[in-house]
Amino acid sequence: MVAGYLDILRARHAVRLLVGTLVGRLPNATAAIAIVLFVRAEGGSYSLAGALAAVYGVANAVGQPVLGRLVDLHGQPRVQLPAAVLSALAMGVFAFSGTGQVAVAYLAVGAAGLFTPPLEGGLRALWPSVLRKEDQVHTAYAMDAVAQEVMFTVGPLLVTVCVSLWSPQVALLVLNVVGVLGALSVVVSPPSRAWRSAPRQAHWLGALRSAGLLALLGAFLFIGMALGSITVASVPYADDHGGDAVYGWLMAALGLGALIGGAVYGARQWTGDPARRLRLLVALLAVCYLPLTLTPGVVAMVLLTVVAGVFLAPCIACAFVLVDLHAPRGTVTEAFSWLVTTFTVGASVGTGLAGPVVEHGGAQWGFAVPAAAGGVSLLVLLCTGGVLTVPARAAVVAASSENDPNRAVEPRFSSGHQA
Questions:
Q1: Is pLDDT above 90 for 409?
Q2: Residue 198: φ, ψ to 5°
């Protein structure tokens, strides 16, 4: 298992790109909690804090595919770094102006979310040119999914450390400065400077003209809903079984399950149609959410939550492969950014949906929401199986690469090339 990941990390520039991307995404990963803590420190209400965090999330969802398209058109350095600087400056305005002028706060937070650089999609576009072999790229996608879980676990801890050492204002400023440095580390690297998107056909829909990509986005909207709803459903359960500490254990268990699942999934070289594999993974994800509705004691519930998280990272890693296969030529960064946006929107919808369900039915019905959302996601994949099936040429390339471990990745798989 470890050998496959070590091979990836030994590749030239791989560690720099992975670490730089994770560091560059820290402001995005910590924005919600940092905004809430800052607003409360300023004397603002929870309603204002939640509204500002929501504005950031919506603006981020809008900005990712737009900036992703600009990256495909103009390259990574010309878009990623200016976007990171603008986002950090906007968050700086928010940190210094506070909540005294609410309109300014909304505009600043919205701009910070809108200009968040699409580093996540950019890294996935770079992996093929850095690793060259398809099986290694698939492993890198899995490692990427695992690294995300680490970032979303460590990020909030960094916020609390900064707040305890200094203040919420300093936490906002420090994390955004660090984010710019992470983006800078990526865009000045040789792979990022050399990468160019493949020639693209001009079309106003961009990546969204792919029926396969649309089907995938539809499925991942509901996977996002499942993840968002489970975070809300865990609150009343924790209130009845020990409070905030139990909630923390449940969220940590969900992340641990994803880490385990992603690590195991990425350690194996997978063959066959990734669309069929994704259907199986989503089915297992939905089934593993069902036992949570039993709401047993804390120890059993933590264990069930670990199991519930196991198939999330494999689903995401498999989706990365399908995005690369179905993205129209020259739109790979935009396509990956659409996946991020759809997942984020789905999580927000799931959070909003689970609230009234929990209020009227308690934690047990709340945990039924992620299971139902997972089932709908599977239904979407089953109904769109025809358009999600791997294109014939891509399947030939995949088979050739799997039969010859020394074969370099074909241009269609890489979705980009070295200049």
A1: no
A2: -60, 155
**What global pTM score does this model have?**
0.75
Contact 64, 116 (CB under 8 A): yes
Q: Is 371 left (phi over 0), alpha (psi -120 to 50) or beta?
A: alpha
- Looking at the predicted structure, is the pLDDT value of residue 158 above 50? yes
SS3 content of the chain, % helix, strand, coil (to 5): 85, 0, 15
| pLDDT at position 400 | 39
C-alpha distances in Å from residue 413, one per residue of 75, 326, 343: 18, 10, 23
Please write down the HEC assignment for all residues of 279-299: HHHHHHHHHHHHHHHHCCCHH
DSSP secondary structure letter of residue 268: S
Q: Which tokens hold the place of 107?
A: 């505009």
Instruction: Say yes or no to pLDDT of 395 above 50.
Output: no
For the stretch 271-285, pLDDT in tens is 888 999 999 999 999
**How much is the pLDDT for 352?**
77
User: For residue 151, what is the enclosing H or E element?
Assistant: helix 134-165
Q: Calculate ∠ Cα 148-340-46, nearest 5°.
A: 80
Q: List, in sequence order, every residue forming a beta bridge with 299; answer none if it has no partner.
A: none
* 213 backbone dihedrals φ, ψ, rounded to 5°: -65, -40
The candidate with the shortest Cα–Cα distance to 373, out of 336, 347, 344, 355, is 347
Distances (CA, A) of 214 to 200, 217, 280: 18, 5, 19
Cα separation, 136 vs 398, in Å, equals 12
CATH homologous superfamily of 203-388 equals MFS general substrate transporter like domains (1.20.1250.20)
Q: Domain boundaries in the chain? A: 1-197, 203-388
- Phi, psi dihedral angles at 266 (to 5 degrees): -75, -15
**Token duo for residue 281:** 């993974």
Inter-residue contact 21 to 121 (CB < 8 Å): no
CATH architecture designation of domain 1-197:
Up-down Bundle (1.20)
